[in-house]
């Protein structure tokens, strides 16, 4: 094989070197990041001598060459293309960078907030519980133990900027302890507490920009965005300094200068500017809910969750306090409740609908927490991540908030939403109940309707390819048939083949276990009984099942098909997921696999044969889905 | 106890067929053959678990063999790995 010729033809096929962002290779594949995928001529690439297959996955164009040859083609390729050799990590990073900026920004915010959620939940949930209890038993608030618990319950929020700073420093690649120092500076006790300042405490001028703009000595309690920006700036300075400061001085010069410059910039510029931005968002919101006929509340209920995402909701306490001080009626709280329980309901729908255990184990507690007024786990952990549930929650929140506004629901305190909110809305109980129910029902219904489990990117690419081709007629599966635990039902449609006749000595010699094979007529594998996926091969050519009757089953599609590296196979279930009898597990492109020279005869193997006294193939000739294939007798 | 490491050279790693052969080989000895990768370890005779480890080309796995015939078992397994993977 002529490596140079192969490399130069690949380069032409991807639209020349100007269209190449970066290149790496693994054991078998060239992994390329392409600037404009439209210029790639896939058919031409597939025709290149030495190329065994081409597909797109995870933002990369992957060209299968083969072990032992891929590195040689790669060497020629980077010489021709004039690019630096990139590591796999570089290529992954470049692929991530292709996401639009706002997606990257949201992802970054998520990356920063998600790790600190446990701290917020621990103390925030305690806060909600105490709020509820003290409303139910007013005498309790005077006890010492309550005072102690109350102190615990607000700790994470009081020192929130430090938590955010640490997490942000980690994400932005700076020193987390220096990040913590920046967070501490922003809420240093020598500054006037932002909450006291909000309720009228005296502040002094700290700095004056050219006598035009006076900076007050106010802390940044309850602020989020200024902290993130400050730490971002610090990390940029720190990383730059590490590069330019000689190593001998690095240890003391870099931390000193990073903290000094960032600290000064933060208190005089970053803090005031970005907290002002936060405040503007807030006053905009206040004007908004004043729009009559429930329209304003409808909008606010909708955008409430995104403001939580942006972190500005911590300031809503100020609005609520102002309302209470004015006439004792807090009309903001019902809107917050509608938005919060709607997000909880949207996450609950995800928990109900998903087939992925991990997603469910995250969505369920997050949802319950949202109903108690702590929405961060539901919003960040579930709804933002999957997108659609966030939108469903926004619509539900909007509807609930409109109801609240039309029925003049108000609260007599603040800081409590969700279920415990009933305790502070006793004067408008019916309205609050309706707000709660409508927000929940609407959000749950929409989320349940539009949420779908994510399919890994590689499968999507494959699916698109499948849809482009003519879809073969599908056989309907009859589930209302007799079911016997001793029987293995056919997971494929085709011709039953004795294991000894499988054209591969390993299977024929029953090295992997006992069973029978099916020579398929349709490229689909379904579940023969209820159970759980114990092993899904990365290449999707085989799947191990742990059935509920204790049987371990391996379904291996074709012979030597591991070499296809996933090409032609689409998994419809993930590792560890549960499935029901008749559910589609894997589909495969029979024509494509056979055109590459592989047989699709599929052994169905019981891999724990020691648990059975007898395993016997019972099907002869053609079998339909869920026909009896193998009979077993327990030992 | 006998221990040894092996780095997988086969392009597709320990997929169904080599896993089956390896499990079958391990069963022929009375010694317990344990495979460890990235802190996860398992008995090699457990076929599903072996396949579930998702061992790929370039991965290094550590074997430990313990029992009466550990000498012979370790050698047989090491030879098998060199020959097939």
Describe this structure in words.
- With 635 residues, chain A is of the alpha+beta class.
- Among the domains of chain A are: 3-98, Glucose permease domain IIB (Gyrase A, domain 2, 2-Layer Sandwich), CATH 3.30.1360.60; 162-284, no CATH class; 487-634, Glucose Permease (Domain IIA) (Distorted Sandwich).
- Helices cover 50% and strands 15% of the residues of chain A.
- In chain A, strands 15-11-12-13-17-9-8-19 form an eight-stranded antiparallel β-sheet, with no helix packed on it. In chain A, strands 1-2-4-3 form a four-stranded antiparallel β-sheet.
- In chain A, a hairpin with a 3-residue loop joins β5 (205-209) and β6 (213-216).
- In chain A, α1 packs across α3 (70-81) and α17 packs across α18 (388-406).
- The two termini of chain A are 55 Å apart.
- With 85 residues, chain B is of the alpha+beta class.
- Chain B has a single domain, classed as Histidine-containing Protein, Chain: A, CATH 3.30.1340.10.
- Chain B is 39% helix and 27% strand.
- Chain B is built from three helices and four strands, in the order βαββαβα.
- Chain B has helices spanning 16-27, 47-52, 70-84; strands spanning 2-7, 32-37, 40-43, 60-66.
- In chain B, a hairpin with a 2-residue loop joins β2 and β3 (40-43).
- The termini of chain B are far apart.
- In chain B, 38% of the residues are buried.
- The mean pLDDT of chain B is 84.
- The chains are: A alpha+beta (635), B alpha+beta (85).
């Amino acid at each position: 094989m002529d490596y140079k010729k192969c490399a130069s033809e690949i380069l032409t096929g991807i639209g020349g070197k100007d269209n190449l962002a970066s290149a790496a290779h693994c054991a078998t594949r060239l992994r390329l990041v392409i600037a404009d995928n439209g210029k790639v001529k896939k058919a031409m690439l597939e025709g290149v001598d030495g190329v065994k297959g081409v597909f797109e996955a995870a933002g990369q164009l992957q060209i299968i060459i083969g072990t032992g040859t891929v590195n040689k083609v790669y060497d020629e390729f980077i010489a021709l293309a004039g690019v630096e050799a990139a590591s796999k990590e570089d290529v992954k990073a470049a692929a991530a960078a292709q996401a639009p900026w706002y997606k990257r920004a949201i992802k970054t915010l998520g990356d920063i907030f998600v790790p600190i959620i446990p701290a917020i939940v621990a103390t925030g949930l305690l806060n909600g519980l105490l709020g509820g209890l003290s409303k139910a038993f007013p005498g309790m608030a005077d006890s010492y133990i309550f005072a102690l618990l109350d102190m615990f319950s607000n700790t994470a929020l009081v020192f929130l900027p430090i938590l955010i700073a640490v997490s942000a420093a980690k994400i932005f690649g700076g020193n987390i302890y220096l990040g913590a120092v920046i967070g501490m500076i922003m809420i240093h006790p020598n500054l006037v507490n932002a909450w006291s300042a909000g309720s009228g405490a005296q502040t002094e001028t700290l700095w004056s920009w050219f006598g035009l703009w006076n900076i007050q000595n106010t802390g940044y309690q309850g602020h989020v965005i200024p902290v993130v920006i400050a730490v971002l700036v610090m990390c940029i300075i720190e990383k730059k300094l590490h590069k330019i400061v000689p190593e001998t001085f690095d240890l003391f010069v870099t931390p000193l200068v990073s903290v000094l410059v960032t600290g000064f910039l933060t208190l005089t510029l970053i803090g005031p500017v970005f907290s002002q931005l936060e405040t503007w968002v807030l006053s905009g919101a206040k004007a908004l809910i004043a729009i009559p006929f429930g329209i304003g509340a409808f909008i606010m209920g909708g955008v409430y969750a995104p403001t939580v995402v942006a972190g500005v909701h911590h300031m809503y306490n100020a609005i609520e306090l102002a309302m209470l001080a004015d006439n004792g009626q807090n009309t903001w709280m019902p809107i917050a409740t509608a938005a919060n329980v709607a997000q909880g309901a949207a996450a609950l729908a995800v928990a109900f609908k998903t087939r992925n255990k991990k997603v469910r184990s995250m969505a369920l507690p997050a949802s319950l927490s949202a109903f108690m007024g702590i929405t961060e786990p539901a919003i960040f952990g579930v709804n933002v991540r999957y997108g659609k549930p966030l939108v469903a929650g926004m619509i539900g929140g909007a509807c609930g908030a409109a109801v609240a506004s039309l029925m003049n629901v108000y609260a007599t305190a603040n800081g409590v939403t969700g279920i415990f909110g009933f305790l502070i809305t006793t004067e408008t109980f019916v309205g609050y109940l309706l707000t709660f129910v409508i927000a929940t029902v609407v959000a749950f219904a929409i989320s349940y309707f539009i949420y779908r489990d994510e399919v890994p990117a590689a499968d999507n690419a494959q699916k698109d390819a499948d849809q482009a081709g003519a879809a073969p007629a599908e056989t309907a599966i009859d589930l209302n048939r007799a079911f016997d635990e001793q029987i293995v039902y056919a997971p494929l449609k085709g011709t039953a083949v004795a294991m000894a006749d499988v054209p591969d000595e390993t299977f024929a010699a029953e090295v992997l276990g006992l069973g029978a094979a099916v020579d398929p007529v349709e490229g689909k594998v379904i579940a023969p009984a209820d159970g759980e996926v114990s092993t899904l091969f990365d290449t999707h050519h085989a799947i191990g099942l742990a059935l509920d009757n204790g049987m371990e089953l391996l379904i291996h599609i074709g012979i030597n098909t591991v070499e296809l590296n996933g090409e032609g196979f689409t998994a419809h279930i993930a590792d560890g997921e549960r499935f029901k009898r008749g559910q589609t597990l894997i589909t495969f492109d029979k024509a494509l696999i056979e055109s590459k020279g592989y047989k699709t005869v599929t052994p169905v193997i019981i891999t724990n044969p020691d648990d059975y006294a007898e395993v016997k193939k019972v099907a002869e000739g053609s079998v339909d889905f869920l026909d009896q294939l193998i009979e077993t007798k327990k030992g | 106890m006998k221990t040894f490491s092996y780095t997988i050279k086969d392009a597709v790693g320990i997929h169904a067929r080599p896993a089956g052969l390896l499990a079958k080989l391990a069963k022929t000895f009375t010694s317990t053959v344990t495979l460890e990768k990235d802190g996860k370890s398992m008995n090699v005779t457990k076929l599903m678990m072996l396949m579930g480890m998702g061992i790929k080309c370039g991965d290094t796995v550590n074997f430990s063999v313990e029992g009466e015939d550990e000498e012979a078992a370790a050698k047989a397994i090491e030879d098998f790995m060199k020959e097939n993977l």
